Amino acid sequence: MDARTVEQITEWDSRPFSGGFEALRDLADADFSGAVKADGAWLFMLNGRVVGVFGGNLDSFEDANGTAFEAPHPSLPLLFSMQERGGKTQAKYYTNDTSLDEACSTLASNNFTGYVELSENVLSGDYYVVYHGGRSMNVAYVGESEKLLTEDEAFERANDEVGIYEVVAADVDIIDVPEPETPPEPEPTPAQSQQSESDSGSKTESEPEPVSDSTPKSADDSAASAPSDSQPAQSSQASSPQTPEGESAQNQKSSRRASSEADRETKQSQPTKSAQSSGPAGETKTPASFSDEQQWRETTTIPSLDPEKSSSSKPRETGVKQRRNTRQSPQRQAQNRTPSGASASNRAKELEAELSARAEKIEALQTELKSVEVERDELKQERDRLQNELDQLRTELQTVRQSSPAATAERQITPQQAFTETNLFVRYGSKGKGTLADAAAGEANRETIESNLKLEYHTRFDVDGVAVDGKEYETFLHESMEYQFVSWLVVDLLYEIIETGHQRGLKDLFDAIQEIDRAELQGTLSVEAEEGDERELSFDIILRDRMGNPLVVANINDSRDPATGEMLGSLVDASSDVASANNELSAAFQVTKSFFEPAALETTEDATSGGLLTREKRESFVKLSRKRGYHLCLVESRNGEFHLTVPEL
Q1: Is this prediction's pTM over 0.85?
Q2: Is residue 404 part of a domain?
Q3: CB–CB of 531/454 below 8 Å?
Q4: Which parts of this chain are annotated as the region Disordered (predicted)?
Q5: Number of structural domains the chain divides into
Q6: Hey, what's the torsion of the CAs at 294, 296, 300, 305, to 10 degrees?
Q7: Structural domain contains residue 149
Q8: Among residues 169, 185, 214, which one ends one of the domains?
Q9: Domain span at 547
Q10: DSSP string, 110-166
Q11: Out of 118, 477, 488, 510, which could bridge 642 as a Cys pair, Cβ 3.0 to 4.6 Å?
Q12: Cα separations (Å) of 129 from 112, 155, 323, 360?
C-alpha cells in the first residue's frame, strides 16, 4: 500500500475488527464504507461491497482480527482502491483549454469508470472526481491542512481552479464475501418420506410449483412454503411436477435448495422490476441501456434488510431475505453443531471461555491503540514544530527578499541590455601625475598609474533604481568579467609586458594599450563583404582609441565549460576580417573562466604559425599580409585574476 494512502486512512474513525468473514458480513449488512486492515492485508468496502483487496487476498480475512477504518465519504475507498490497483492515463487537459465541467459531462455520458485528478500546477490542493459506470462522486484535499471537501463544494472549488488535470481509466472488481456454511439437513425417516410423497401428490393436483421460474417468489410465498416447527419434513419435501416418481426425499431437498440459490443469484444480477420488460411466456428481460446503471446501483447500494424500508421491488426484497436467512453467527452455528444430548451448563462454560478470550483480545487491542495514539500525538507535535520552523524560514526569506536590491529596485533589466548600453572610459585624475604612455616610457611606476587611472562608465539609461540579476547596477558591472578584463588589460598586462621584456615581441599590442580611450561592451564592427554589402561582426569587448578605431577585440567565455576549437575559429575569422579593413587592430583575445581544450590550442597554433619559412619575430601573430596582422592571445581567469597563457610571458 502507498504510504500516503495509509497515512490518510489511519486518520479516519476506527474500531476493532474481529471475527473474519462473519465480521465482514456484518459490515456489509451495515452498508459500511471504508477500509479494513488485518495481518498486513487491506480491504476496501463501498456501501457494504468489497471493491479491492491489497497486500493479500480475501482468504486473508477468513479468521482474521484487525482494525476497521470508516471513511468520512464513500468516494475515498473507491478512489484509493483505483489508485492502488493502478490505471491507464487516457488524456491530460489544461483547464483553460478544456474546462473540468465539460470533461466531466463527457465522461458521465460515456459511462466512464475511473477518476479525474486535478493537482498539477495547482497550489491550493488536490481535487478528484471518481466515476463508476458514469456515476460520479467528488472529493478534494485543500490547503496546507489538507481539509477534506466533498460533492458540490469540492467540484465547485475544482471547477474554479487553473491547472492540468489527468483522466485515468481504472477497473473495479466487486468481490462477494463468502456465505457461511449451512449445516447438512438430517435424513428423512421412512414415515416422513411417505408423508412427503403424499404431500407431493396433493401439491401436484392443487397447484404446480415453478422450479425454474426466473423471478424469485415473494416474501409471503417464501413464508408459506417454509417448514413449520411441528412438521419440518412434511412441509419442506413437497415435490414439483417435474420430480420423478422414484426420486428420494433427499434429492428433492437438494433440488429445491439449488432452485432457491438460482433464484437469489438471478435476482442479484437483474435490475428491479421497474427497470425490466416482460417478453413472451412471462420471460423477464433486462434492457441493455440499464446495464451500466444496474452495475453502479449494485456497487453503491445494498437494499435494506427490512422489506418495508427497501426501495426495491418485492422480488428484490425476497432475494435479500433469502440471503439474510442463510447467514448465521458463529454462536448459532456452534449451537446447530451441538449434539442434542449436550448439557446447557457445558454450553454456558464454552460461551464464557469464548467471551473471556474475546475480552482479552479487546484489551490487547485497546493497549495497542493507546500506544498508536501516543505515537500519533508525538508525530503531530513533530509536525507542528517543523511547520513552525518552516514558517520562520519563510518569514526570514521574505525579509531578505524585501531588503535585497532586486526587491527594492524600480525596474529590472537583463545583463544583455546592461552591457549593450554601457561604455567604459579610461580617464586620469591628472595627466601630469602619470599616464599609460608614461608607464610605457618607464617614467611612472605601477602604484602611480593605479592611483591616477580610473575606469568610468557611461550608460544610455538612468542607473538609479535599476537592478541586474538581483544586484544593483554598479555592483553587477564591477563584478562582471568584462569590466575586470578591461581593468587588467590597461594596467596589469602593460606592466607584465614591460617586466618580462616582451615589448618587441608584442609591439603592436604594447603600443595599442597606450592609446586605449574607451571600451565598448557587447559591440559590433562593420566590414565590407565581397559583394560590396556591409556585414556586422559582434564582439563581447571592443577597445577603441579617441577616434573610434578598433585597437583590441575580445570574446568572453563566462561558463565552467572549457573554451573550444569552434570558439577560437570564430574569433580568428571575425578578427581577420576586421584587421583586413582596419590597420589599427593590434590584438584579439579569447578569455575563459575555465581552460582551453586541445582543439582550441591547435586552432591558435595553426592561425599563428605562418609557415615553415616565416621570419616573423612578433609573438602569436596572425599574419594577413606583409604589413597587416594581429596578435592572437589566450587568457584564463582563475580566482578573479587573469593569466596570459598564449603567448607565454
Answers
A1: no
A2: no
A3: no
A4: 177-351
A5: 2
A6: 0
A7: yes
A8: 169
A9: 422-459+480-646
A10: TT--EEEEEEET-SSEEEEEEEETTEEEEEEEETTTTEEEEHHHHHHHHHT--SEEE
A11: 488
A12: 11, 8, 33, 43
